[in-house]
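so the lab meeting is tmrw and i was supposed to have these ready like two days ago... anyway. pasting both below. for each one the top line is the aa sequence and the line under it is the structure tokens. i havent really looked at them closely yet so no promises
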Amino acid sequence: MDQLSDMSPWEAISWTWAAACSLLDQGKDPRTYLVSTLMDDAKRDLGCSQLDPKRTVQIIVKLQAEGTHSWPNCPIEEVDYLRHDHRHVFHIEARKSVKHSDRDIEIIQLGHAMREYLGQCFWSDEKNLLIFGSRSCEMIAGQLVTEFSLDSCQVLEDGENGAIVTV
């Protein structure tokens, strides 16, 4: 019964019912099994993370976006060219915790939402790319973490150098 106490009543009924139906499909009488046995079987067969509070599941969204940025006040002479707008393909990887392993948040939909958000905030019709202004990789990642309640976001310039922001 400990397993049931970690779940909402709906979850307990749902998973127990699924296990009982599975037994019926196999020609077995589910009334001869303990509820805890049914729960163990459902947990094993379905691999559902919501049945195991010690397990965490994160989804990962990766996207690339062409854009420019600059560091106008760059104090380092060796890289003084960073003071001017320069183009990168920004490689973005976002991670977000989910409550269960069956599409709690649809990965493709989150990717679309992130791409749309970047376009709304930074798109330039004139340049046909994203204009991040003086935002660093750290700032871009932090903005995405905040906007989408992400656990972490990594932003790399051309897939090489960049930053990761973790909550």
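ok protien two:
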Amino acid sequence: MQERDTTAVLKLTKQKLTMKHIIARIETKDWRSATETLHDNGFVVIKDTLKQHECDELISLYNTPGRFRKTISMERYRFGAGEYKYFQYPLPDIITAIRETVYPLMQPVANKWMQELNIATSFPSSHEGLKKECHKHGQDKPTVSHPEIQ
């Protein structure tokens, strides 16, 4: 019994350290440049956010029953070959850490877009605030996808 408790504590400690490292990597990125690129191009690639073993951890979830709420066949929509899946709650810790860390850095871009489009909407300053706003309007599913494109 004690051995199982020790193993669980060690696993939780390792997960917390991994999340701290991911958050630290995110925080060291050039967010001024990233938000400018996002604003100007509508997308931005933030390189080297996850290490290979962290990507492998997410990839290993792909065939786990119950982790995804929906699977999309790309061929059906003429998007090419392959499929992607939508995670269901609870999201993997890595995804949650990224969402909660990146959202407040990207939120000003979304608000600027609303202003430039003359749309009287502004986004909350925290990811938790966004989730509450989404739930209030009936959006209670996460939309993070995990592509498996051939």
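from a quick look at the 2nd one: The chain has a mean pLDDT of 84. The longest strand covers residues 68-73. will dig more after coffe
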